[in-house]
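User: For a benchmark we're assembling, each entry needs the component sequences followed by a predicted structure for the full assembly. Here are entry 17's components. Please fill in the structure.
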Amino acid sequence: MSTTTQAQTNGVFDAWVADGGDAPAGPDWLQAARRDARARIATQGAPTAKAEGWRYTGLRDLMQQDFQRVHEPVSALQPGDIDEALIPGLDAHRVVVVNGRYVPQLSALGTLPTGVRVGGLHAMLQSDPAALEGRLTQIAGAGCHVFATLNTAAMDDGLVLLLERGAVLQRPIELIHLSVGMDEPRVAQPRHLIHLGDGAQAEVIERYLSLGDSLYCTNSLLEIELGRDALLRHRRIQLESPHAFHITGLYLSQGANSQYDGVNIGLGSAWARTDLVTRFRGEHARCDLSGLYLAGDRQLVDYHMDIRHDLPNCASSENFKGIVHGRGRAVFDGLVYVAPGASKTDAAMSNRNLMLSENAEVDTKPQLEIYNDDVKCSHGTTVGQIEPEMLFYLRSRGISAPLARRMLCLGFAGEIIDALGNEALRQHVAEQVGQRLEQAPV
Amino acid sequence: MSALTEQLAREPANPNVDADGAYDHLVQSEYEHGFVTDIESDTLPPGLDEDVIRTISRRKGEPEWMLEWRLKAYRNWLEMPTPEWAAVHYPPIDFQAISYFSAPKRKQLQSLDEVDPVLLETYEKLGIPIEEQKALAGVAVDAVFDSVSVATTFREKLAEVGVIFCSISEALQEYPELVRKYIGTVVTPKDNFYAGLNSAVFTDGTFVYVPKHTRCPMELSTYFRINEAKTGQFERTLIVADEGSYVSYLEGCTAPQRDENQLHAAVVELIALDDAEIKYSTVQNWYPGDEDGRGGIYNFVTKRGDCRGARSKISWTQVETGSAITWKYPSCILRGDDSIGEFYSVAVTKGRQQADTGTKMIHMGRNTRSTIVSKGISAQHGQQSYRGLVRIAGKAEGARNHTQCDSLLIGDQCAANTFPYIEVKNPTAKMEHEATTSKISDDQLFYCRSRGLSEEDAVSMIVNGFCKEVFNELPMEFAVEAQKLLSISLEGAVG
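Assistant: Structure for entry 17:
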């Protein structure tokens, strides 16, 4: 990174924004955005325990780590090395990002239909920065907390997916984000941009994985812009190392009549924070977010949602389910905001939790802020345990208690797993969930 | 909803948009209870320092420990920041511009005959004739006019069964040890900014003690009035229900029309010991300010009940239609095993009213249960937030909570927010939260109109149906009053 983007930070995050090695400085507008971000970091600093957005999500463990930025791309990996990370039978255009770097030799793009461009962010910044202007850093804006600002200030490489007007991807794009263990804790800050032109359609499967069980931090940020009538199916599977910290922000900007269908599966990492932010640019757009999270022993899973209805006739839904066991903790904080002019808004939020152990904790906060009377808004939350009657029913049919519990948990999770659609992916996730439940002392 | 009244609701400051003026009387329906009684008051000059607190304590003839307690609270309050987290907006309050003591000059009355006739007249204007109260449904009234109790009825009848029902000043003199044992144990002076201020300067309030295994023979009631301009009213209510006892307490308020903002920072503490039950009902109709939001009461209240004993029960029911700003969260700490907490609320905001209200249910004991039913109605420029916390501690085996918050929006300039916080640390807990936001549908209105009801009556009927669950929890006389109040409140707000 060029010295022009250097600025004073208050010290806490110096290592996060240290010189990024061979990353391109980018065009002037990007440099300006990054300078702004650095200035904001200096004033923002690390969130305190009193900050409302971090009320239930302690940052102490994260801030205690001495993370270093990843400098060199990982070149030692050969295509055969990532076989264990692949999903059998998943037919997709594959993009592999290792420790925040796009690695072409591991990726398998195959033949792309006309009107579809896929590439690495750094490469695109050098070859065709104009294609990113007005989108990169613009969709997320200031972001919702300092980690988004950090990503903007120090962005690593990532995926750029651009679909021209009317382009349709038949096969999904699979974005594998791989973390490879290193001697000392590393922070990678991948940055992705997806733009779908008017009427374009695509499916993106985004996966976070690690080779080995090392401690690291991923601070990723995605910007997605959907044109009029565009349709994006987005599947996000988080299976980071059990010692990892995972922060991800998704900033979505939807044009008129566009549809976003997102399923979030959060199974891995010791500490995970996800922010989903939606803004509507046109009427009759629809945003559906669903999710399944498993928080096992000493795991923390945090989903924050900020859905803002500024325009009339848009619809949004959030359907999140969680299973918490051991000393696991789950945090759900959803906000639906309906502006005064946003008549005929249809918004529904639901968060259901299954709590399986004495020391687990669920903190949930489904919020509605409504400034219009012509709306249909609701939210519901439940926290409960497995019904003894259901367990008895299965036991009386000769099924062992642990298996019966697992069956009931899988039944609870099934609704979200089925929503994944893609059969190979669905099987993969069902297996992962099953395995985790098997290891859990449920 | 007719386009005309919709337009009116949007421009409440300019009622002349309606050429023939047919709706003017509705939109401009002024505060019914707006009048000021001219009566000489013994008032301290505005300002707050330790000397003011010493003066208050001396004039009330309080024991030394009480003064120390007040001073400690005051010193701590000085360090506290003004809270800014609530979704309400108002100019900063100048605490030095408030007079902290105001007492009608004639005190120590033995009977109603000695009460200043002007005062009695005031009560009658408010529809609270004290003489008639005796006969009416066995309600004993400890009427508070500004800050000092001037008349108390039914004391003897209550004394027969051993129930203590008096002003907190009297209690401090007659039962100092009882007060000392319980005051500040539910809401400590350090609890929050306004509770701290109240602890330092409270001038009056009510004390109730129901002895063991006693069912209070009548519903106890205090009517609040704020009269003196610039006098903040700092009430302190302490209700203790000893083992196996039951008491129902009613609180109702109205206030005269004034341009000055009047701060009201009360503290209510309820303590229920083993098998005791306290039912606390509120109808609040303080002056909400004019149509531009000028004037009106700031109602910053800390209300909390402590289910200290096993199988105890505390139930809060509130109907909030007044005040420029309401900021209160009647809460229950469910400490005793098998204890029960309930919160039933109807809140109406119209004009420029703002309300940030809700409850906290803290489950600590085993098999504790809580129910929350909150109904919010927002009209014109009304801003309303439900803010609630349900916390189920790790040791609260078998805890159960059901929460329902429904909002009804009338007009497109109002707001209804829901901020529920749910924290569960025990796997045997069962916790459900539901919330909906809706408006009165055209179908509902059409159905009523086609059966010959006027639009206003139809809306009133639908709104009353919406609130029925809460009204059912109110004592009968209050329920009737509350329904009437709701209809009056929504006059001119619907269209």
